[in-house]
Amino acid sequence: KKARELIMEEINKNDDIQKDPPATVIVDSFVDNTVKFEIGFWVPDLSETSELRNELMLNIFESFSRNNIEM
After folding, report:
1. Cα dist from 40 to 8, 20, 56, 68, whole Å
2. Pick from 18, 22, 17, 1: which is nearest to 57 by CA?
3. DSSP characters over the chain
4. Count of Cβ atoms closer than 10 Å to residue 10 Cβ
5. Whether the predicted model's global pTM rises above the 0.85 cut
6. Rounded to 5 degrees, what are φ and ψ at 14?
7. Burial class of 60 by CB neighbour count within 10 A (0 to 12, 13 to 18, 19+)
8. Which residues contact residue 10 at a Cβ distance below 8 angstroms, ignoring those fewer than 6 apart?
């Protein structure tokens, strides 16, 4: 649950991700002792999706590191 909460925190911090409809974080599968999450979010401009996704993933990685969640 902690990992999902941290992901949602990072999504909610990003002003470029739309709040409506809300983002989703779903457990997708368990693979090799890890949990794979599917993250869904909406952006106003589709041309910015790759850049926003990259920024979000880096922020999630940093958040996990700060909270001692191994990846």
Report:
1. 11, 12, 12, 24
2. 17
3. -HHHHHHHHHHHH-TTS-SSSPPEEEEEEEETTEEEEEEE---S-GGGHHHHHHHHHHHHHHHHHHTT---
4. 23
5. yes
6. -85, 110
7. buried
8. 56, 59, 60, 63
Give per-residue pLDDT as tens, 33-60: 889 999 999 999 899 889 999 999 999 9
Residue pair 41/23 in contact (Cβ under 8 Å)? The answer is yes
Tokens of 42: 């909406």
Q: 65 vs 13, 21, 32, 49, 71, CA distance in Å?
A: 17, 29, 20, 24, 9
